[in-house]
Structures are given as C-alpha cells and as structure tokens.
Amino acid sequence: MQQMLDSIHAHLYRKTGMNFAVLDLTGASSGQVSTVFKHLDAWSADPALKPMTKLPILGDTYQMSAVVVFTEGDPWFINSRNWGVILERIMVAVQPTDRQSFDWFLNETGLHFPSVEPVDRNSVARMVLSVVEELQVEISVKTESDVVASGPYYGDLVSKLRNEIDVEPGDASVPDE
C-alpha cells in the first residue's frame, strides 16, 4: 500500500509534463479506498504542496471524482465524498422548483459553468462560493488532526470561483468593470 501511495504522491507533486494522472481504484477494498482518500485529503489540505497534475479517480460502481469546469482556466477536481457535501449544501439553497433546471450543469459529477445560462453564471458562482467559504470556516475551527480527515484545501476553488464571478455574462473574455 505504501508503494502505491508513494507513486500517487510522485505523480501529483513531482512529475512534470503531464496534464492528468488517472487513479483507478477498481477492485480496491473500502479500507484501501479510505487510506488513499485520507492521504489525498492530507496532501490537499497542505498549502505548501501544489499538485503538478490533475487526478481524476475511477472506481467500480461509484463516481470517485467530481470536476468543476470554468468558462476560463483549468478545471478543479475533488473527490466525490467532499463534492457531495458541497452539492448537498448548494441544493439546500436552491428552490425546489428550480432544482431540475440545475441538473444540466450541477450534479454528483461536478459543475459545468459553460452549460450555465450566461446571465445566471454570476449568481451560481456566488452561491457555490458562499458554500465553499462556509466550509473553509468550519475546517479552520477544527483541530489540525481533524482538518486532515475532514477534507480538501479549498483555496484554489475559491480563487477560481472569484474569477468566474468577474467574468461578464455572455462573454468569457471580458472581465466585469
């Protein structure tokens, strides 16, 4: 197991020249999956570590990775467990009558801003940013050992959401004035 963790760490933090490294956990036991995610969460919670590649994760009968695709810039990846927390909190803020329309761009596999109506992108980004900032506050009040177990470092997502808010509706190349 340690050899696999060392290999994952090397692919994420030391190897250059790759856009993606895919982690296939098909057939892994729940204990092995849990160990991998504990390490991924610990690494992502450490602001000193900056991944050099993205890591979509595959599994047997479950979605192991979610992605947030922005109108500009690189996508942001998160494990499905932590994305589920974000998604659940977002959907609480969405009116029940509007939830079906959100399925086009927001679901358990992630969020796709290019699929959001241009006039709605700013409000969707603000709603997601509010949820993520709330989670950051919750994580910051936990003890250090709890932070490792509780989830990812959300700083990159916050920055990308703030950039999305600055994008003028209808024109991804023109920032708001």
How does this model look, in words?
This protein has 177 residues and is of the alpha/beta class. The protein has one domain. The chain has helices at 2-13, 30-45, 80-93, 99-102, 121-140, 144-150, 155-165, and strands at 23-24, 57-58, 65-69, 76-79, 106-107, 110-112, 167-168, 171-175. Strand 5 (106-107) and strand 6 (110-112) form a beta hairpin. Helix 2 crosses helix 6 (144-150), helix 3 (80-93) crosses helix 5 (121-140) and helix 5 packs antiparallel against helix 7 (155-165). The longest helix has 20 residues, at 121-140. The protein is globular, with a radius of gyration of 17 Å. The N and C termini lie far apart (51 Å).
Features:
177 residues; alpha/beta; four-stranded mixed beta sheet; two-stranded parallel ribbon; 47% helix; disordered C terminus
Largest sheet: 4 strands, mixed
Beta-strand content bin: 5-15%
Low-confidence stretches: 145-151, 169-177
Task: Quote the distance from N terminus to C terminus.
Answer: 51 Å
Number of domains: 1
Report the structural category: alpha/beta
What percent of residues adopt helix (DSSP H or I)? 40-55%
Strand order of the largest sheet: 4-3-6-5
Summarize the structure.
With 177 residues, the chain is an alpha/beta fold. It has 7 helices and 8 strands.
Q: What is the topological layout?
A:
Blueprint: H1 2-13, E1 23-24, H2 30-45, E2 57-58, E3 65-69, E4 76-79, H3 80-93, H4 99-102, E5 106-107, E6 110-112, H5 121-140, H6 144-150, H7 155-165, E7 167-168, E8 171-175
Parallel strand pairs: 1-2, 3-6
Antiparallel strand pairs: 3-4, 5-6, 7-8
Helix pairs in contact: 2-6, 3-5, 5-7
